[in-house]
Amino acid sequence: VRHIAVLTSGGDAPGMNAAIRAVVRKSVYHGLKVSGIRHGYAGLIAGEIEELDVGSVADIIQRGGTKLYTARCPEFQTSEGQEKAVEMLRQHHIDGLVVIGGDGSFRGARALSHRGVRTIGVPGTIDNDLPCTDYTIGFDTAINTAIDAIDKIRDTATSHERTFVIEVMGRNAGDIAMIAGLAGGAESILIPEAPFNMEQVLEKLERGMERGKRHSIILVAEGVGKGMKIGEQIAQRTGWEVRVIVLGHLQRGGSPTAFDRALASRMGAMAVDLLIRGETSKMVGIRGTKLIATDIDEALDTAHEIDLSIYELAGVLSI
Ligand code: ADP
């Protein structure tokens, strides 16, 4: 490989900048040419490609978001769009591509690799909803943002003796709700992977009140349903004052944690190593403390799994 390009695609995540920096600097270290593609696959099709050097990625390791911007691009899901992308890469003499993004972005990466472009995926999404890796870049920052919010809400919940429902991100995966709920000491956690019975949730809340608890925090993953609706159900049943907070895009922002910066730096560098070795159609992941590479086909055919023993523990500890 002689010329590597990097793009970020889909939902942004804190730590993407640290991954871009690692791809650029590791490439330069090995004497390769390296370019950044703006606005994900949309920018690739449009030719928004610019050569980067060591200085281009200075002062971004601590910044949230992505310097290369991100986009969603329906055109890239058509074969005409993909052909345009391949042609653009050929015109720029790019022979290796690093895609930083989530599940959808990896489907795009697979399509490119099937068209002969050497492509490596780096998992960047706050949801942690990818298989073949214990962590995705951005998840640790997002759960820290969430517990920061929970702690603050707890202060006012305690003072006013109120019940709060906090809705966090996670359409298909309850990772954010589960870990932030455990770490934030939420009374109840509702996630898509674990069937719950609203009646039992309400009974638990009432039991808590009977033994003198004056406030409660219920964490809801957005995939389970609207926090607002769950708040209404609780208010109707109990007659308590219930407040609902939707954390929303707050969870996507902020300076990445040390964990995310280190993970992103390692994963970005590994993507370059894989391209140098002539690999393609792989996704980088972490198992325990070791980085691994998995076939992107295998990754896309495997379901993301959540460790429900952690969910059960959160239930035990919030009894
Ligand atoms: P994420 O990567 O965060 O899951 P999306 O699902 O929005 O985000 O995907 C990002 C982009 O990846 C899409 O806008 C599209 O350009 C591309 N993409 C998604 N699915 C496919 C697919 N099946 N084939 C080709 N490209 C895809």
From TrEMBL:
Question: What species does this protein belong to?
Answer: Sulfoacidibacillus thermotolerans (Acidibacillus sulfuroxidans)
Explain the purpose of this protein.
Catalyzes the phosphorylation of D-fructose 6-phosphate to fructose 1,6-bisphosphate by ATP, the first committing step of glycolysis.
Q: EC no.?
A: 2.7.1.11
Q: Does the keyword Isomerase apply?
A: no
User: Subunit composition?
Assistant: Homotetramer.
- Pfam families on file: PFK
Keywords tagged on the record: Allosteric enzyme, ATP-binding, Cytoplasm, Glycolysis, Kinase, Magnesium, Metal-binding, Nucleotide-binding, Transferase
Q: Which residues bind ATP?
A: 11, 72-73, 102-105
UniProt similarity note: Belongs to the phosphofructokinase type A (PFKA) family. ATP-dependent PFK group I subfamily. Prokaryotic clade 'B1' sub-subfamily.
Query: By its UniProt entry, which PROSITE patterns does this protein fall under?
Result: PHOSPHOFRUCTOKINASE
Q: Give the residues the record marks as binding substrate.
A: 125-127, 162, 169-171, 222, 243, 249-252
What SUPFAM superfamilies does the record point to? Phosphofructokinase
Q: Could you name the active-site residues?
A: 127
Q: What is this protein called?
A: ATP-dependent 6-phosphofructokinase
Citing just one GO molecular function, the answer is: 6-phosphofructokinase activity
* Gene Ontology CC terms, in alphabetical order: 6-phosphofructokinase complex
> What metabolic or biological pathway is this protein involved in?
Carbohydrate degradation; glycolysis; D-glyceraldehyde 3-phosphate and glycerone phosphate from D-glucose: step 3/4
